Amino acid sequence: MTQQPIDADPSADGAHQDPDLSYGSYLGLDRLLSAQHPLSPEHDELLFIVIHQASELWMKLCLHELRAAREQVRKDELGPAFKMIARVAQVQRQMIQSWDVLSTMTPADYARIRPHLGQSSGFQSWQYRLLEFLLGNKYPATIAVHRKDPEAFAALTAALAEPSLYDESLRLLSRRGFAIPADRLDRDFSQPYRPHADVEAAWRAVYQDTARHWDLYELAEKLVDLETRFQQWRFSHMKTVERIIGYQRGTGGTGGVSYLVKALDQGFFPELFSMRTSL
Prior knowledge:
Blueprint: H1 23-27, H2 29-32, H3 45-74, H4 78-102, H5 107-113, H6 126-135, H7 150-161, H8 165-175, H9 182-185, H10 197-208, H11 214-245, H12 257-263, H13 270-274
Helix pairs in contact: 3-4, 3-6, 3-8, 4-11, 6-7, 11-12
């Protein structure tokens, strides 16, 4: 039997377009696809812009999911939280792979674009900072660079004072009867979290009796996945920068690679890693 060709006209198969809501209008494609404004005539600048804009969209989704996951943990409803955190882990896969795409830009390609970037830099991403705050990496001084953006500064100031996802996880452990120190449950959340031996002992107890504490164990493993992927993203970022500009200073005035290497030492859930040594 001869296979009939598929009609090139979708309307022949019943497809139609809603005059009030089309694919493009629903997604706001007119605004989205007109938001790339290269400042140089260089071919690769569009790649540079798209990679970073796409990363900001993925971070927007991560913030949406992790805020909701934090609320579910707060309500002791871990099932939905697991789905949300797992989704973020998959988003992180996409973000990690984006560095491979950017790595197709050579040092010479970037050198022609760099003079047009001024002092703009990835460390000025307020969504990235919100993400770190939500996960627990709190350093009040880091929001100073955003003072000239009142909306971003207000969002960061509010997030700085809120409990992180890890803070809420520790509160959950406490509600389940684990001996979490009071100064880890009610503290100045704008300050960096400091690990505690009693918190490590609580997580160790969860891992030593997973049958009894399965949902807490699953929460812990989801958090470990989250931090591991975040560190992989940081590492890939650092190696991409090293590949493209070597050890030059960053456009925003940081040390470039040296600045990114320091970030690799900044974890979010310290006792979930330290307790594994003594298991």
